[in-house]
Amino acid sequence: MAGMPIYDLFGGKSREAAAVYVVPGGENLKEYKENIHRLIEQGFRCFKINGADRFFSDS
Fold first, then answer.
1. For residue 46, what are the domain limits?
2. Per-residue pLDDT tens for 22-58?
3. What pLDDT sits at residue 58?
């Protein structure tokens, strides 16, 4: 009704950006490392590593 974003009704934006994470992915440790370095160059700072235990298991 006011024709403005809701955050303006509450005093304006509270921050310029939100922290997010990215999953680098990779089939092996070398690919994980390469992907993480590439993402760091793009400005990412937080990473979630899924399934890394498969690289270190005894089986």
1. 19-56
2. 999 888 889 989 999 999 999 999 999 877 677 766 6
3. 60
With 70 as the cut, is the pLDDT of residue 6 above it?
Answer: yes
In the chain, how many domains are there?
A: 1
Burial 15-54 (b: 16+ CB within 10 A, else e): eeeeeeeeebebeeeeebeebbeebeeeeeeeeeeeeeee
Residue 31 within any structural domain of the chain: yes
What three-state secondary structure class fits 22?
A: strand
3 falls within a domain: no
